[in-house]
Amino acid sequence: MELRSDLIRGTVLGLLILGIGGRVLMRVIAHMEGRVPVFTEGTITVLLAGTVAGALTGLIYYLLRRFVRKPWLRTAAFITICELISWRGVSGLLPLPQAMFMTLALVYLVIVDLLGRRSQPARTHLEAGAA
Questions:
Q1: 131 residues of the chain, pLDDT tens digit each
Q2: How far apart are CA 36 and CA 63, in angstroms?
Q3: How many structural domains is the chain composed of?
Q4: Helices 95-119 and 41-67 sit at what angle, rounded to 10 degrees?
Q5: What DSSP string runs through 28-97?
Q6: Residue 111: inside a domain, yes or no?
Q7: Cα–Cα distance measured from residue 10 to residue 17, given in angstroms and rounded to the nearest whole number
Q8: Does residue 131 form part of some domain?
């Protein structure tokens, strides 16, 4: 059940934040660089890439939630792993667009983590003492 909810959360937020948000960010960057922004078939590619990245992020979140018990360590590992993957994807861009896309990815990751924490069942006092 957790895997399914982590995948759904990551995928839906990936479409909305990484896909649509990434496309909007591309439009802003085009304006900043003085280019005429246009919607092409590449728009569908960006939406699909954001959705797939979201699904993979959901899988990473699930695996970390399953094997890393300390919430602060899990969050740190999640953000570090995913930001390093994101960095690889934007490493060829100019510095300002790089920073903008990395910030978008960070916002996405924080939202995924916050919602993931809220969806976890509360641990009882006895469970907390056993951990």
A1: 789 999 999 999 999 999 999 999 988 988 888 888 677 777 899 999 999 999 999 999 999 999 999 999 999 999 999 999 999 999 999 999 999 999 999 999 999 999 999 987 655 444 445 54
A2: 42
A3: 1
A4: 50
A5: HHHHHTT------HHHHHHHHHHHHHHHHHHHHHHHHHHH---HHHHHHHHHHHHHHHHHHHHTTS-HHH
A6: yes
A7: 10
A8: no
Q: Which pLDDT score is estimated for 75? A: 97
Residue 83 token pair:
């930001």
Rg value, the chain, Cα:
17
Range of the domain at 46: 2-120
In the 8-state DSSP scheme, what is residue 124?
Answer: P
- Tokens (6 digits) for 14: 């990936």
